[in-house]
Design brief:
This protein is an alpha/beta fold. Strand 8, helix 6 and strand 9 form a beta-alpha-beta unit.
């Protein structure tokens, strides 16, 4: 088969940090292993801590002794080790450069990055004459003066969603601030008032836009980099192009060549036909319960947050956690536990309004977003769900209860502290004896 399995490409020795680790400990781990990102494990999910995250936390004044479990981090998608590279490209999220390989027992067997995908490309399928300049998307590249304070550069990187900045001295490009540079300077608590020139990588190495895609990918692999600076024939800096862009272009061509192979085309069509109608649903819903997944819930929250601020309407949140769920799994098995979660999801749907947004937040934890609802209204909804769960009969288990934490969005409050208040209220409900609602 032209598409190799991910297991054959994966990095098997994965550097991970636990959810209990602090930001500072994670930075030390990243510096120790000279990596730009670290996979965060725990609670049955895999998340990622990146250099842009560290910049954001520093600018927002987040204490670096904060445990990773208290932060909102991007979730890393996961697939079976037997999946192929086409499925990996479909699964890798926007802004996430990795995918986790997880077996049927939920164990992490490796990760696959765009670097691994680049290494799997058959050189014979690349167009020898297609130049990087032909596909260069001239997106705005952050360019700063070497005397500019590092904090100002961080502010610009965050505002423009840039992961690197080209550094100039009197209109001449002299260096680049990379993700590794960011991690190093944050790891040693450098003074962000210092000029960015003190922390940049130098000299700046760039490649001409006349190089082919094949040569660009070879350059990335040889130098173990994810982004390359491109200059025009006259030496002027055009900007930065990522390895991801090169890989995507190569794989698009690979997919087109598949059409010349009838046997492979038949298999590809079967995969695409099965996925076409379900891709959108799979990307936004939890496979077990049919509720929205955490990522989609967070995206919908951003929309509701904007609406709430614009029209000055209340917005409330309900977090609930199934009581003693581990005991259910240990006593009756995971299949019965899955049945409990599906039944609770159904009870939640019956207990909320059409406008309310329900999601499986993770494991046995669920969330409900309540637009145009005060904390008093959220309390009524939470009690309605709690009572419905308490009154229901769960096959093989009998009675099941859940604990609830609720909160109403405060003026100018962002997602993290809002969710944190509801989560702390949920914790108090657990401590107070479970099967109750607490207000955050």
């Amino acid at each position: 088969m032209l598409f190799p399995s991910l297991d054959s490409l994966a990095t098997k020795e994965v550097i991970t940090a636990s959810r209990e680790a602090t930001i500072q400990e994670a930075i030390a781990l990243m510096n120790q292993h000279n990596i730009r990102d670290v996979i965060v494990t725990g609670a049955g999910d895999y998340h990622i801590l990146t250099a842009p995250d560290l910049i954001r936390f520093r600018l927002e004044g987040v204490d670096y002794t904060t445990p990773l479990s208290q932060l909102v981090l991007s979730r890393v998608p996961s697939v079976s080790p037997q999946a192929n590279v086409l499925e990996a490209i479909e699964a890798i999220s926007e802004g996430i450069d990795y995918i986790c390989l997880v077996d049927a027992q939920g164990a992490l067997k490796g990760i696959v990055s765009y670097t691994d995908l680049a290494g799997s490309i058959d050189p014979d399928i690349l167009v020898e004459t297609q130049r990087i300049g032909d596909l260069f998307r001239r997106e705005k590249t952050l360019m700063v003066d070497r005397q500019e304070p590092t904090r100002s550069v961080f502010d610009q990187m965050k505002a423009q969603a840039q992961s690197a900045a080209i550094v100039f001295d009197q209109k001449k490009a002299v260096g680049i601030l990379t993700q590794k540079d960011v991690i190093k300077l944050l790891g040693r608590s450098a003074d962000l008032r210092s000029p960015v020139g003190e922390f940049m990588s130098t000299p700046l190495i760039s490649i001409p836009d006349s190089l082919t895609i094949k040569e660009g990918l070879s350059y990335c692999r040889e130098h173990k980099i994810k982004r390359i600076v491109v200059h025009s024939f006259d030496g002027g800096i055009m900007g930065i192009i990522s390895q991801k862009d090169l890989v995507a272009t190569a794989y698009n061509r690979w997919a087109r060549l598949i059409k010349d192979h009838q046997r492979e085309l038949k298999e590809l069509n079967r995969i695409l036909e099965e996925r076409t109608e379900t891709l959108e649903k799979l990307a936004s819903t939890d496979a077990l319960t049919g509720l929205f997944n955490r990522h989609m819930f967070s995206e919908l929250f951003k929309r509701e947050l904007a609406q709430s601020r614009r029209y000055k309407t209340p917005l409330s949140l309900v977090l609930l956690d199934v009581d003693h769920f581990k005991k259910v799994n240990d006593t009756h098995g995971h299949l019965v536990g899955d049945g409990v979660l599906k039944q609770i999801a159904a009870l939640m749907r019956e207990s909320v309004r059409i406008a309310d947004i329900t999601a499986r937040w993770g494991g046995e934890e669920f969330a409900v977003m309540l637009p145009h609802t005060t904390v008093e209204g959220a309390h009524i909804t939470a009690e309605k769900i709690r009572s419905a769960i308490e009154a229901a009969h769960f096959e093989s288990v009998g009675a099941v209860t859940a604990s609830f934490g609720i909160a109403q969005l405060e003026e100018n409050e962002s997602q993290e502290p809002f969710f944190d208040r509801a989560d702390k209220a949920l914790y108090r409900a657990k401590v107070a004896g479970r099967n109750r609602v607490e207000v955050g």
